[in-house]
TrEMBL record, chain A:
Protein name in the entry: 3-methyl-2-oxobutanoate dehydrogenase (2-methylpropanoyl-transferring)
Keyword Zinc part of the UniProt annotation: no
Cofactor: thiamine diphosphate
GO cellular component, one term: mitochondrial matrix
Phylogenetic classification of the source organism: Eukaryota, Viridiplantae, Streptophyta, Embryophyta, Tracheophyta
From TrEMBL, chain B:
Family matches, as Pfam families: E1_dh (PF00676)
CC cofactor: thiamine diphosphate
Protein name: 3-methyl-2-oxobutanoate dehydrogenase (2-methylpropanoyl-transferring)
Catalysed reaction equations from the record: N(6)-[(R)-lipoyl]-L-lysyl-[protein] + 3-methyl-2-oxobutanoate + H(+) = N(6)-[(R)-S(8)-2-methylpropanoyldihydrolipoyl]-L-lysyl-[protein] + CO2
Enzyme Commission number(s) of this protein: 1.2.4.4
Subunit structure, interactors included: Heterotetramer of alpha and beta chains.
Keywords of the record: Metal-binding, Mitochondrion, Oxidoreductase, Potassium, Transit peptide
Family membership: Belongs to the BCKDHA family.
InterPro entries recorded: Alpha-ketoacid_DH_E1_comp, DH_E1, THDP-binding
CDD domains attached to this UniProt entry: TPP_E1_PDC_ADC_BCADC
Length: 369, 498
C-alpha cells in the first residue's frame, strides 16, 4: 500500500529530461559532487513568463504527467491569490484540484495522509506567515514518517508550497521568511527558487522527490521576475548549489529573491575591482556544502545574505560549517547581511531589509579586512 | 440541543441509536430522520428540500425550558404548518435557506441533562437485551427477525480469544517493564472490547490509523506476540528498527499505520488517506482511533471538518475512557462527550457502550457501511473506562479513588461480560479459558526472552530512512561517530552492533 511506484533509476545528470505522460519518475536528487550543474539546456523553445506562470506551468505538467497527483489549499480552485493555480481545476477536475477549509494543520495533515497512500500531494499554504499551525504536522509527522516506521510508510509525495518574503508592503504577516525553522528538521527538504525557470524545474523535482519538501516561492518575484522558460517538462537537481556568477575575491551565498539584490551588489563591486562569486544555494536542507566550500577555498572570503532575521538565521549554519571546513583559508570573518532582529515592519521595511548598499559595504569591509 | 433527544426517547431507545446527524439541513441531501414527523414543523421551510426531510431546521435549535410560563415562548419558535407554505418566511444566505424567528432564544446546552443515549446489545451480565418493540428495528446487523445474533460462533470466539490474549499480553509486558526489562509500556485494560471487536468488524483492506491504545487491532489481524515483543525491545527484528519507544507498533502489511506519540495528529491524516481510498474507488475505509483528550486538540477539529468537506470514507472512533492521564473528562470539555461534536461538522455520529463487544462490532460494521457506501465520514464515540494507569510512568491512584478503579475492573469488565455471553451460548468453558490464558502467558514469556536476546539494529540504521537516501551530512556524521566510538567504546551500549 505504501510501496513506492517504479523507480526509474537514481542517476541525475543533466538539468533537462523529458517525460511521457504515464511515466512516474521517482528520482532521488542527492548531490554527490561539487561540480556545478550545467545551465538549463533548451531542448525546446522557451517562452517569456513570470514566476507565477512558471509555477503554474510546473503544476500543469505535474498533474498531467501523474494521475495520482493533487493540488489543494485555500482558494486554489479559482486560480489562487497569486494566480499560481490558474486553470488547474478546470483542466484536471475538482477532485484533483480543490479548495480546502481554512485550516493549515488540516491542509498539511490531509496532505500527509494522501501522500502516505503513494500520491503526490501538493499543498498550498497561502502565505508562509501562516504555516505555523501546520508546524507540528510538518516536524513531528511528515519529517519523521518514514524514519519512525522503519521505512514501512512514507509521505515522500508531499510538497508544501508557500509564498514567502518581502513584498514591499506586507508587514508582519505577509513578508516572513521562515526557512530557518524548517532547516532544523531532519527528514524534510527546503527548496527556494530564484527565478521562473529555476522555479519550474525545482518545483517539478520537489514534487517528484521521494521526501517531503517545503517549497518557498519568493512572492516579490511572482510578477517582477520574467525570463525565458522552456515549455517542456524538466527537472533541476535538489541539494545542488549553483555558481551563478564566477569570481575570485569573495564568495556570496544566498537564495530566492535576495540573489538579485546580491547580484546588483556584485556588479557594482566589480567596478571597484572586487571580483565576486555568487552562489544560489537552491536547497537549504540538505545543503550542498561541497560547492560552497570549493568556492571559499578559492576566494578565502564568505558573505551570506538573507531577508530573515540574522539571529538564528540559516546564514549562521552556513557560516559555522564553512568556518569548520575553511578556517585556515579564510582571510576575514564570515559576513552576514540579513534582516534585523525585529518582526517584519511595515513603514520601516526599507531600513529592515538587507539591501544592495548594505551588502556592498560588507563586501568592501570583508575584502579590506 | 435537548429536545430532539427527548423526542428520541419517546420513540424508543432504538430511534436514538440510529446515526444522529445534522442531516445536511442547509446544503441538502439526506432524508433519514430520527424524529417522527409530528415533532417538527418547519422542515418545509427548507425551501427546495423535499418535504420528506423530517429533520427540522429549528428542531436543532430547540431548547428545553424549565419554566412552565416559557412553554408558550417555545411554541413561538415554531411557526405553524400554515406559515410553512409561505416561502418568504425564510431567508437566503450563502450556505442556503434558513427560516427566521422573531424570538430571541439561545440554544441552551447542558451536558448533564438529556445526554445522547448509548447503544448497547448485552447487559452487564452478558445477556442479550431485547430490541425495543421487537423485530428488526434495532438496526443491528446481527439481529434478524428472531433476534438471534448473526455474528458467527467462529467470529465471536476469535474476538473473545483475542480479548483474552490482549489482557494477558498487557499483564506480562507491564510486569516486564516493572522488572526493568522494558523501558516503557501502556495497557488497554478495560478497553479490550473496543480494539478487538472494531477490528473484527472491518476488512483487512480497511486502513487503521491508531492513537496508541489499540493493539487489539493488530492482534486480530495477526501480529504475533513475538512481533510485539521485538518492537518493545527495539531489536533488529523490530519493523520500526529500534527508533521509537515501546508500543509504537506499525505494520504496513496489516494496514496499521505506525503509532506516533503526538496526540490527534492522525485525525486529519485519516481524512487524506480516506480521500485516497475514495479516489482509488476501493471498497475500503479508514478507521482512526483517539481518546477523549485528543478530541480537544486542534487536529480533531481539522480532521473532522476536512473529512466532511471532502466527503471521505473515514470512521472516527473516540475511546472516551474518562481520563487523559490525570485529567478527567469534566476538565476536558463541557459538551455532552464527543458524540455531539460530530453534528457540528455535519457528520453522522453515534454513542456506543465500548465495553460491550457486540455493540462495538455492530456499530463499527454499520459505520463502515455508511462510510464506504455513502462516501462520507462517521463518528463513533465509545464510552468506556481506562482501568489501567495511563502508562508505566503513571500511578493513577494518585488522582482517582482506588475503589472506582476496582469497580470498573471487576463489575464492568468487558472481557468478563463477553465471556458470559459466549459461555451462555455454549461456545466456551472454564477449561478452555485457563488453557488459553496459560498458553498465552507461556508464549509471551518465550517471546520476551527471545526478543530480549536478539541483538539491536546496526548503528547504520540510525542514519537510514531520514530521507529515502542518506545525504552527505549524515554519511559524514556516521563516519565521525564511528571514529568517536573507536576512541571511547565505553560510552556506548555494547548491544548495538557498530
Amino acid at each position: 500500500m505504501a510501496s513506492v511506484l517504479g523507480r526509474y533509476g537514481r542517476k541525475w545528470s543533466l538539468g533537462c529530461v523529458s517525460y511521457h505522460k504515464n511515466y512516474l519518475p521517482r528520482f532521488s536528487t542527492v548531490a554527490h559532487s561539487a561540480v556545478p550543474s550545467e545551465p538549463i539546456q533548451q531542448q525546446q523553445a522557451g517562452r517569456s513568463m513570470n514566476l507565477y506562470s512558471a509555477i503554474n506551468q510546473a503544476l500543469h505538467i505535474a498533474l498531467e504527467s501523474d494521475s495520482r497527483s493533487y493540488v489543494f489549499g485555500e482558494d486554489v480552485g479559482f486560480g489562487g491569490v497569486f494566480r499560481c493555480t490558474t486553470g488547474l481545476a478546470e483542466r484536471f477536475g475538482k477532485h484533483r484540484v480543490f479548495n480546502t477549509p481554512l485550516c493549515e494543520q488540516g491542509i498539511v495533515g490531509f496532505a500527509i495522509g494522501l501522500a502516505a497512500m503513494d500520491n503526490r500531494a501538493v499543498a498550498e499554504i497561502q502565505f508562509a506567515d501562516y504555516i505555523f499551525p501546520a508546524f507540528d504536522q510538518i516536524v513531528n509527522e511528515a519529517a519523521k514518517f518514514r524514519y519512525r516506521s522503519g521505512g514501512q510508510f512514507n509521505c515522500g509525495g508531499l510538497t508544501i508550497r508557500a509564498p514567502y518574503g518581502a513584498v514591499g508592503h506586507g508587514g508582519h504577516y505577509h513578508s516572513q521568511s521562515p526557512e530557518a525553522f524548517f532547516c532544523h528538521v531532519p527528514g524534510i527538504k527546503v527548496v527556494i527558487p530564484r527565478s521562473p525557470s529555476q522555479a519550474k524545474g525545482l518545483l517539478l523535482s520537489s514534487i517528484r522527490d521521494q521526501n517531503p519538501v517545503v517549497f518557498f516561492e519568493p512572492k516579490w518575484l511572482y510578477r517582477l521576475s520574467v525570463e525565458e522558460v522552456p515549455e517542456h517538462d524538466y527537472m533541476l537537481p535538489l541539494s545542488e548549489a549553483e555558481v551563478i556568477r564566477e569570481g575570485s575575491d569573495i564568495t556570496l551565498v544566498g537564495w530566492g529573491a535576495q540573489l538579485s539584490i546580491m547580484e546588483q551588489a556584485c556588479i557594482e563591486a566589480e567596478k571597484e575591482g572586487i571580483s565576486c562569486e555568487l552562489i544560489d544555494l537552491k536547497t537549504l536542507i540538505p545543503w550542498d556544502k561541497e560547492t560552497v566550500e570549493a568556492s571559499v577555498s578559492k576566494t578565502g572570503r564568505l558573505l551570506v545574505s538573507h531577508e530573515a532575521p540574522i539571529t538564528g538565521g540559516f546564514g549562521a549554519e552556513i557560516s559555522a560549517s564553512i568556518v569548520e571546513r575553511c578556517f585556515l583559508r579564510l582571510e576575514a570573518p564570515v559576513s552576514r547581511v540579513c534582516g534585523l532582529d525585529t518582526p517584519f515592519p511595515l513603514v520601516f521595511e526599507p531600513f529592515y531589509m538587507p539591501n544592495k548598499n548594505k551588502i556592498l559595504d560588507a563586501i568592501r569591509s570583508t575584502v579590506n579586512y | 440541543m435537548a429536545i430532539w433527544v427527548t423526542t428520541a426517547r419517546k420513540s424508543g431507545a432504538t430511534m436514538a441509536a440510529r446515526c444522529l446527524t445534522r442531516r445536511n439541513m442547509v446544503n441538502g441531501g439526506g432524508s433519514c430522520s430520527a424524529f417522527p414527523k409530528s415533532h417538527h414543523s418547519l422542515n418545509a421551510l427548507a425551501g427546495k428540500k423535499e418535504k420528506e426531510n423530517s429533520s427540522s431546521l429549528l428542531g436543532f435549535w430547540r431548547f428545553k425550558s424549565t419554566k412552565a410560563s416559557a412553554a408558550a415562548a417555545v411554541d413561538q419558535l415554531y411557526s405553524s404548518d400554515e406559515d410553512v407554505t409561505n416561502n418568504h418566511q425564510g431567508l437566503d444566505f450563502p450556505g442556503g435557506h434558513v427560516s427566521y424567528t422573531r424570538s430571541l432564544n439561545f440554544i441552551s446546552n447542558s451536558s448533564t441533562q438529556n445526554r445522547v443515549p448509548c447503544y448497547r446489545v448485552l447487559d452487564d451480565n452478558g445477556v442479550l437485551i431485547p430490541a425495543a418493540g421487537g423485530g428488526s428495528n434495532s438496526g443491528d446487523f446481527q439481529f434478524h427477525h428472531h433476534q438471534q445474533p448473526l455474528i458467527s460462533q467462529q467470529t465471536a470466539l476469535k474476538m473473545y480469544r483475542e480479548m483474552v490474549r490482549l489482557q494477558v499480553m498487557d499483564t506480562i509486558f507491564y510486569e516486564a517493564q516493572r522488572q526493568g526489562r522494558l523501558s516503557f509500556y501502556l495497557t488497554s485494560t478495560g478497553e479490550e472490547a473496543i480494539s478487538v471487536a472494531a477490528a473484527a468488524a472491518l476488512t483487512p483492506d480497511d486502513v487503521v490509523m491508531p492513537q496508541y491504545r489499540e493493539p487489539g487491532v493488530l492482534l486480530w489481524r495477526g501480529f504475533t506476540l513475538r512481533e510485539f515483543a521485538d518492537q518493545c525491545f527495539g531489536n533488529k527484528d523490530d519493523y520500526g528498527k529500534g527508533r521509537q519507544m515501546p508500543i509504537h507498533y506499525g505494520s504496513n502489511k496489516l494496514n496499521y499505520f505506525t503509532v506516533s506519540s503526538p496526540l490527534a495528529t492522525q485525525i486529519p491524516q485519516a481524512a487524506g488517506v480516506a480521500y485516497a481510498l475514495k479516489m482509488e474507488k476501493k471498497d475500503a475505509c479508514v478507521v482512526t482511533f483517539f481518546g477523549d483528550g485528543s478530541s480537544s486538540e486542534g487536529d480533531f477539529h481539522a480532521g473532522l471538518n476536512f473529512a466532511a468537506v471532502t466527503e471521505s470514507p473515514v470512521v472516527f472512533v473516540c475511546r472516551n475512557n474518562g481520563w487523559a492521564i490525570s485529567t478527567n473528562v469534566s476538565e476536558q470539555f463541557r459538551s455532552d462527550g464527543i458524540v455531539v461534536k460530530g453534528q457540528a461538522y455535519g457528520i453522522d455520529s453515534i454513542r456506543v457502550d465500548g465495553n460491550d463487544a457486540l455493540a462495538v462490532y455492530n456499530s463499527i460494521r454499520a459505520a463502515r457501511e455508511i462510510a464506504v457506501k455513502q462516501g462520507k465520514p462517521v463518528l463513533v464515540e465509545f464510552l468506556t473506562y481506562r482501568v489501567g494507569h495511563h502508562s508505566t510512568s503513571d500511578d493513577s491512584t494518585k488522582y482517582r479513588p482506588v475503589d472506582e478503579i476496582e469497580y470498573w475492573k471487576v463489575t464492568r469488565n468487558p472481557v468478563n461480560r463477553f465471556r458470559k455471553w459466549v459461555e451462555g451460548n455454549g461456545w466456551w468453558n472454564e477449561g478452555e479459558e485457563s488453557e488459553l490464558r496459560s498458553a498465552t502467558r507461556k508464549q509471551l514469556l518465550q517471546a520476551i526472552q527471545a526478543a530480549e536476546r536478539t541483538e539491536k539494529p546496526v548503528l547504520e540504521e540510525m542514519f537510514n530512512d531520514v530521507y529515502d537516501e542518506t545525504p552527505s551530512n549524515l554519511r559524514e556524521q556516521h563516519v565521525q561517530l564511528r571514529e568517536t566510538i573507536k576512541r571511547h567504546p565505553g560510552d556506548y551500549p555494547s548491544d548495538v552492533p557498530v
